[in-house]
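Thread: Newbie trying to understand structure tokens

Hi all, I'm a second-year student working on a class project, and my supervisor (Dr. K.) asked me to get a predicted structure for one chain before our next meeting. I've only ever worked with sequences, so writing a 3D structure as a token string is new to me. If someone could post the tokens and maybe explain what I'm looking at, I'd be very grateful. Here's the chain:
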Amino acid sequence: MVALGAILVAASMFRDFRASRGTLNPVLAGAPDAAAVSVPPPEPVLLAEAEPPASGPGTFVIGTTRGQILGTAGTLKRFRIAAESNVAADDLTEFTRMVDATLGDPRSWIAGKQVRFQRVADGEPYDFTIHLATRDTAHKMCSQSGLDIRVDGIPYTSCQQWKKVIINLDRWHKSIPDYVDGGVPLETYRQYVINHEVGHELGRGHEGCPGEGKPAPTMYRQTLGLDGCTANPWPYLDGKRYAGEPVA
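---
Reply by user tm_fold:
Sure, no problem. This is what the structure looks like when written as tokens:
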């Protein structure tokens, strides 16, 4: 009888615990690889995240899966995904998902029908690599061409180098003040920074803000502030290329 009573008490406590926590979503253990699903997938719920590491070893884990061809016409650009070794376990899967979803969106660069993209696995031929790097490593990589990504002495922005798109882990996790203060989702900033730096890889230069209250062009340096424009991650709006005046 004592053992039976203990079992009943434990079962009651478990029911109370589940009631206090609410219903948890099950893990989708059978979900297909990103390469097998249509893009863009549903946006995830982004929870508060821990402070990302400021530095890392400078070595990268390269993705081992191949994705779909994104786009219907134009030159095919094959890319790899790479995450710095000390963050890869936490970020590589989500980084891969976001890159596929962003570049495969009908408002992204594929809308112009001049380029298509495909993510390839480690060891396959590729045209460029999209890196997720800690801020100190991003600074070292970007400075190889003399580019300084620091603001107030801290590596702040992302960059593009020859065959390398380099996304700063700090911005990937924290976005920027103008986005945060304006209630713009982190997902939107991630879309912006991917399109912006891949735009450089495609040969696009920086563009200016077209006017107060208007969407910022994707090639506007939104990471350094919107300056009256509104957040916009997409190079094509309403099916048309949306751009500002070229700036240095």
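A couple of things are worth pointing out once you decode it. Residues 210 and 239 are 18 Å apart (CA to CA). Residues 51-206 form a domain with the Collagenase (Catalytic Domain) fold (CATH 3.40.390). Feel free to ask follow-ups in this thread.
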